[in-house]
C-alpha cells in the first residue's frame, strides 16, 4: 500500500474529524496532518481515540496565515480542505470572519498548494452555494446564487478554487454536499441542537412554518464520497454529493420528538431566519454514474445519531455552556 501524506484542514470540526477517523481506518498507512485553528467550534475530544496514532499529526494554526500553511504544505502531497466558518445564523449576525476564513483562508491554501506542487486539492463546499431550488435539482452546471453571508463566502471560495485550476492547472476538485448529520456535530446545528434541547426538557425552536426543505446525508457517506473523489475525481471538476433524503424541517422535528418520547407541545414556532432558503436540492447523477452513492438508510442513521447524543452527553454538554 502506498504511504500517502495528506493535509486535512479543519480536522477538529464535525466533518473533518469524522473524515480523519474514516481515512485512518480505511488506509492505515496514510499519514494525516490536521491543521485547525480550534475556533469556537473546536473540540479536541472529537479525535481523542486517534490522537496517539503515529501517523496522525495535529498542528494548531490558521489557514489565513501563510507561514503556518506553508510549514505544513511542504510535508504533504494532497489536501482536503474542510476548515471554514460554517454556521449560517452566525454569518447573518456578522459575516466578516466568514469572508476572512472562507475566502482569504482558501486563497492562502491555494497559493501554498501551487507553490508546493500539491498533487490533489479537494475543496469541500456546500449545496447552499446554488441558493434555493423552488423546483427540480441543481446540477454542477447550474449558476451560483447564494443567499447568506456564509453561502456567499463559500461560493467565492469555490470560484477561487476553480480559478487556480483554470489559471495555473492546480489539480483541484470541488465538492458540494447537502446537510450532514451524525456524531460530533456542534450542538448549535439543527439535529444535535434539537436532540440536546429535548433531552434537557426544553422546547425546540422551529423557524417560520417549518416547511423549508433540506436534503440530509449521514456524515460517513459524505466522507466516503470525498474519499471516492480523491481517488477518482478529475481535476477542475465539481461534484455534487446528495443524500437522497429531502425532508421539511418539521418532518425532521417530528422524527426527533418521537425518538425522544416527546410530542407537539415541545415545538415552539419562532420568527423565520432572514433570507431563509426554501429548499436545497442537488442532482447527484454525475457521481452516481462514476460509481458512488450513499450507503446509509436515513431513518436508521438518524436513530444511531440520536443514540450517540443520548450516550455521549459528556461530549456536547460542555459545548452548550
Ligand atoms: P465545523 O464548524 O464543525 O468545523 C470547522 C473546523 O474548521 C473547526 O474545527 C474550526 O476550528 C476550523 N477552522 C475554522 N476557521 C479556521 C481557520 N481560520 N484556520 C484553521 N481552521 C479553522 O464545520 P463542519 O460542519 O465540519 O463543515 C466542514 C466543511 O464542510 C465546511 O467547509 C462546510 O462549509 C462544509 N459543509 C458542511 C456541511 C454540513 O452540513 N455541516 C454540508 C456541506 C458542506
TrEMBL record:
One of its GO terms (molecular function) is dTDP-glucose 4,6-dehydratase activity. It comes from the Archaea. Keywords: Lyase, NAD. The keyword Protease does not apply. SUPFAM superfamilies: NAD(P)-binding Rossmann-fold domains. Pfam families: GDP_Man_Dehyd (PF16363). Its cofactor is NAD(+). Residues 7-304 form the NAD(P)-binding domain. One of its GO terms (biological process) is nucleotide-sugar metabolic process. Transmembrane segments: none annotated. This is dTDP-glucose 4,6-dehydratase.
